[in-house]
Every structure is written in C-alpha cells, then in structure tokens.
From TrEMBL:
Residues 320-551 form the RecC C-terminal domain. GO terms for molecular function: ATP binding; DNA binding; exonuclease activity; helicase activity. One of its GO terms (biological process) is DNA repair. SUPFAM superfamilies: P-loop containing nucleoside triphosphate hydrolases, Restriction endonuclease-like. InterPro entries: P-loop_NTPase (IPR027417), RecC_C (IPR041500), Restrct_endonuc-II-like (IPR011335). This is Exodeoxyribonuclease V subunit gamma. It comes from the Bacteria. Keywords: ATP-binding, DNA damage, DNA repair, DNA-binding, Exonuclease, Helicase, Hydrolase, Nuclease, Nucleotide-binding. Gene3D superfamilies: 1.10.10.990, P-loop containing nucleotide triphosphate hydrolases. PANTHER family: RECBCD ENZYME SUBUNIT RECC. It comes from Acidithiobacillus ferridurans.
C-alpha cells in the first residue's frame, strides 16, 4: 500500500522533514487500505487512492494494523521526553505490555529478566537518591546493561560446552579443549600501542609489564596442560579465494614440529583437511575424520543418475501460449517451472533502504505499462487521470519531485499514444476472440489468441502497445526477445487458418510484421517437438544467445556477460544450475539425438531469425 518510512506527516516533521508530507507514511498506507476495503479498487476520496488488495477475511488485519500505528504514534511522543527513574519504570512496563506477549518458555524467561533488571535499576536509583530526569538513551543503556550483567550467584561451569577466552593463571582441567581460529597473524595476538604510549619506547619496559604475545605463548601451554583427554586445534588451511595453502599460527606450527620429531606418523594420522563447502563429495566418501550429519547431502539409493532425461509426461496436459513463450525464450527455465513445478529465481522481497528521488528503469517501465493499459482500456484521454492516480498511490518520489516525474512520464508517452491513435483509427477491434486448439505429439495447446483487429479491407492483425523500447542501441534493429510473443501468435493464428499481420507500437518505434510464410505450420510443429523434448530435460540453448550465434557473432558475452552486460546466465539461476557458463552450454549434449547448442539454435530459432529480417520499423515523430 506504499508505506516506506515514517508514521505520519507529524512524525516526519518531528524528524526535521516537514516538507515530505504524509505520502508513503504509515498513516497514508492505512487510509489507502481502509478506503480500498470500503469502496473497492479504482476509487479515490479526498486525495486518497484506494488500495483494493485487502478483502474478505484479510480485512480483519486492518484493525490490528491500525492499533499498531496508534501505539507507535503514542510511544513516539512518550519516548522523546525526559523522565525521572520512577516514570521510566512505569513507561517501560507499559511498553512491554503494549508490544510483547510471551508465546513460549523462552519468551517468558526473557520478560522476567527484563522486569528483574528494571526492578534492580530502580532500587539502585532509590538507594543512591537519584531522582533527576533522564533521556531515553541513558535509561535504555542502563536498563539493558543490567540485563546483560553477569549473575555471580550462578554455578561456575555447570556442565555442557563452555565458550571462553583463556587468561593467564586461569587454567581449569577439561576432558576436551578446542582451540579455534588459530590462523597465522591471529595468534599470538598483536597489541598495537598508540603513539603517545611511553611504555612502547625503547628502554622503557620494566619487569612485570604485560605482553600479550608472551601471554599467548603461555596460554598455549596452559591449554595443552588443561586438556585431560583430547585437544582439538583448527585453522583456515586454505585461502578462500584461490585455494592456496595457508600456514597456521606460529605456535601451532611449533607444536606440529614437536609432534613430528617425536611421532612422525602420528602427526599425519591426526591432521584432517576439511573441504570448504558442506556439500563436498569428500564428506560422503568415507575418508577418516570427514563426516557430515546433514542428511540432505546424502544421495538417495533410488535416485536417478545425474543428467538423465525424464520420461515423457504420463498425461497430456493442456498448455497455454504463455507457457509456449516461456519455453521459447528460456527452455531450461520452462523445464523447471512446467515439469518440476519449481523455480530458483525467487524474487527478493526486501525493500530499498534509501528514499528514491528519481525512478529507475524498471519502475519507469512499470509506470508506463500501467499508463498504456489505461489508454487501451479507457482511451488516451484518461492517461493524465491515471498518472494522478499513480501519484495519489505513492508511486512517485516525494514532494515536488512527484510533479516532475509525472510530467516526464507524460512527455515520454505522448508520441507513443499519438501513433497508437493513428493505428487504432485504421485497425478496429474484431467483434469476437479466436480460440485455438492445436495438438501435436504429446503437446496439446489450448488457449485464446489476443484480441484481433480488422481494417476496412477485411485484413486481420495483432495490434499491441508496449512500454519497452524495441530497438537495440548498437544494431538499431528490433530486439528479437521483445517480439517473440508476436511471432508465436502469428504462427498459432496461421494454424487455425488466419493470416494476420503484426503491429507493435513500442516506446521508440512502430514495428510492422507481415504474415508468416506458407511453411509456418511445419515451423510450429517443429517447435512443439522441441517443447516436448524440453519437458524431459533442460535444453542447452537460449533465445538471445542463439540469435547472436545465428548472426555469425560471438555469443559468449551475451550468455556470460561482462562489466557492462549482466548476461543471461547471471539473470537466471535455472540456467546457472545446469550451464554455469557458455563453455558448459556449448559443450552439453541432450536428447535422443545428442544435439548441442548449435543444433538447437538452428532448429528452434532459425525460422524466427529469418522472420526478424522481414520486419519494417519507423521511429516515432
């Protein structure tokens, strides 16, 4: 609903930012939610744009959300005051009551510890006769310090595992002593002295002065003597970047030399090198000293060998045009999504940490797409109203930047709408939609074609409005991946006996495509055959990389990326799992015919590449 930061306009004013107003605050979002629940979506009242995603049983969450905002607003006023200790104690108990409720024994113990720490602090203040007003920072520090203070009444080393830092003359016998992180440079520890420390000057040292490096040498000996049965020493034996061997601490190296001098074989038998990754095959190889308790890394005794294709689906499931387009663009992703019902490319729900003052390319695209859909549905005259709705919904930057953003978007979209109106005057929407049912092999395609448009001569065409730029900046030709949907729609229309032109109004150019050639039916059947094959294993090919290869250029930078281009594999974890780089992609062989990247590129995308060469385009005035 657009809550980014701040509770309300008053809260922002208290933070020294009164000009930001209420937009994208908590109160702003709550009003949008309540108005959307009351009036539904696509409505506004008193400058508030409704957010209609909440309905039914979810509406019960609006009450607790409103109570939360009310309590936060209340405590925001309370916690900025200076209070005496007694008032702070009362406020702290009320705050715990308002916001925390124990759900298990650990929570109950934590709340009891907080209450005990607060009681002890109040008793100390009373005993000292302290009754001055304090700010929140002082009270908070004192309260939490009391919570973290050690309890001297507890038993020493009551059992279990003890984590500690060794100190001189504190050695206590243990059955097992573990020394962790004994890396070179980390132990013995360095003790840098400031420039003004006179004890660091030559000749100023006196007997009894502490030396951390000497203490650490002594501590190493104490740790050895404290171990009654076994001692465990670990260090980072290899560099995490280049896997080069790294030496241990000098004291560990001296210990190893002493063991080697006395018992040469014992040192090798008791030195274990652990792999870096927890899924390393060495942990499952049965080597002495290497084991894992992570059951998920153990292969199932009935699992299929790696890189084995799945059989054809047992049932013929109706497929949609969207699924066909997904396969056409990225066959590997289609395999995981459509056959295995999984996807490694989970969207990151994390929000931005900084308030945006300008829109990035992705957000600009989404806003333009929203404006274009409003133009398609309600006509170009309603675009300005939709832009105002976007602003009321908090999708623009704050304050005066919002007006500048709206003006920039409308200026950007005006040429597109001008061309769109001219096209719509020539091509009117057909009265009926066209259903398509096409079966080939074990693929059954059932869907509806997009809305067809018809001119005065009776010709049919797909007329589409896009918010993206269609021309490639370097080649100044239409980008294939942005026109793949139009190509497939023309093929499917041809399959039901309709010859349709294609017209795409992009953000920068108008693209026209003639109907497919007579052999388009064979191209569609070949595509469905490859789709059926791609449902059994991820095919080593992608649309963008294949088109560059078919042009006779080097496709590796398109797939792997570089400093300026992210590359297809970096954008899709489905690809990275099977083909982490172009070398792996080009060397893979799949299918019954054991075809590779070059063969799949020609079979899957050659007709599409030839179709791209027939396109005509014209820049917007």
């Amino acid at each position: 609903a657009g809550w980014r930061w701040g509770l309300s306009a008053e809260h922002r004013a208290a933070l020294g930012m009164p000009h930001c107003g209420p937009q994208n605050s908590g109160d702003f979002a709550l009003q949008r939610l309540c108005l959307g629940y009351a009036n539904g979506d696509d409505s506004h009242f008193s400058g508030i744009e409704a957010y209609g995603e909440v309905g039914g049983l979810d509406a019960a969450l609006l009450g607790p959300l409103g109570q939360l905002l009310e309590k936060l607003e209340h405590w925001q006023h309370v916690l900025v005051e200076f209070l005496v200790p007694g008032r702070w104690g009362e406020a702290a108990r009320n705050l715990l009551t308002d916001f925390f409720s124990a759900s298990d024994d650990d929570d109950e113990a934590l709340l009891q510890n907080l209450e005990e720490a607060l009681r002890q602090w109040l008793e100390d203040c009373a005993a000292a006769g302290f009754d001055e007003a304090l700010p929140l920072a002082v009270f908070r520090g004192a309260w939490l310090e009391m919570l973290d203070a050690p309890d001297l009444g507890r038993s020493f080393l009551g059992g279990g595992v003890t984590f500690c830092t060794l100190l001189p003359m504190r050695a206590v016998p243990y059955p097992l002593v573990c020394l962790l992180g004994m890396n070179e440079g980390d132990y013995p520890r360095r003790s840098p002295r400031p420039d003004f420390d006179l004890m660091a000057l030559p000749g100023m040292a006196r007997p009894g002065d502490r030396s951390r490096r000497d203490d650490d040498r002594y501590l190493m000996l104490e740790a050895l003597l404290a171990a009654r049965q076994e001692i465990y020493v670990s260090w980072a034996g290899r560099d995490q970047r280049n896997n080069h061997e790294r030496a241990p601490s000098l004291l560990v190296a001296q210990l190893r030399e002493a063991i080697r001098d006395g018992w040469p074989l014992a040192l090798e038998e008791r030195t274990f090198e652990h792999p870096l990754q927890p899924f390393s095959p060495d942990y499952l190889s049965g080597k002495p000293g290497l084991r894992t308790w992570a059951r998920e890394w153990y292969p199932s005794p009935h699992s299929a060998p790696e890189n084995t294709a799945l059989p054809d689906p047992a049932e013929v499931t109706p497929r949609s045009i969207r699924e066909l387009l997904e396969f056409f663009r990225l066959p590997a992703r289609a395999f995981y999504r459509q056959r295995l019902r999984t996807d490694f490319n989970e969207e990151d729900p994390a929000e931005e940490d900084d308030e945006p003052f300008t829109l990035d390319s992705l957000e600009t695209y989404h806003l333009l797409e929203d404006l274009l859909r409003a133009a398609e549905k309600n006509g170009p005259d309603r675009v300005a109203e939709r832009a105002r709705a976007q602003q009321r919904g908090g999708r623009y930057p704050l304050a005066g930047m919002a007006a500048r953003t709206a003006a920039a978007l409308l200026d950007d979209i005006t040429p597109v709408l001008t061309v769109w109106q001219e096209i719509r005057m020539e091509w009117a929407a057909a009265p009926q939609r066209q259903a398509i049912t096409h079966a080939h092999g074990r693929i059954l395609l059932e869907d509806w074609l997009p809305t067809l448009h018809q001119n005065s001569a009776g010709d049919l065409a797909f007329v589409q409005l896009r918010a993206s730029r269609l021309l490639n900046k370097e080649s100044q030709k239409p980008e294939g991946d942005k026109l793949a949907a139009l190509w497939l729609q023309q093929l499917l229309a041809n399959a039901v006996g309709l010859r349709c032109d294609g017209i795409v109004v992009g953000r920068d150019v108008l693209v026209r495509a003639a109907p497919p050639p007579p052999g388009a039916m064979a191209a569609l059947d070949d595509l469905l055959d490859l789709w059926q094959e791609g449902l059994c294993e991820p095919l080593p090919v992608t649309l963008k990389t294949a088109l560059v290869s078919l042009q006779g250029k080097n496709p590796a930078p398109i797939y792997d990326g570089n400093d300026h281009l992210p590359g297809e594999v970096r954008k899709n974890l489905n690809l990275f799992r099977d083909y982490p780089d172009f070398a792996a992609l080009s060397s893979a062989r799949t299918g019954l015919q054991r075809r590779g990247f070059a063969e799949y590129a020609a079979a899957l995308y050659r007709p599409f590449a030839d179709w791209l060469e027939t396109l005509e385009w014209q820049a917007h005035p």
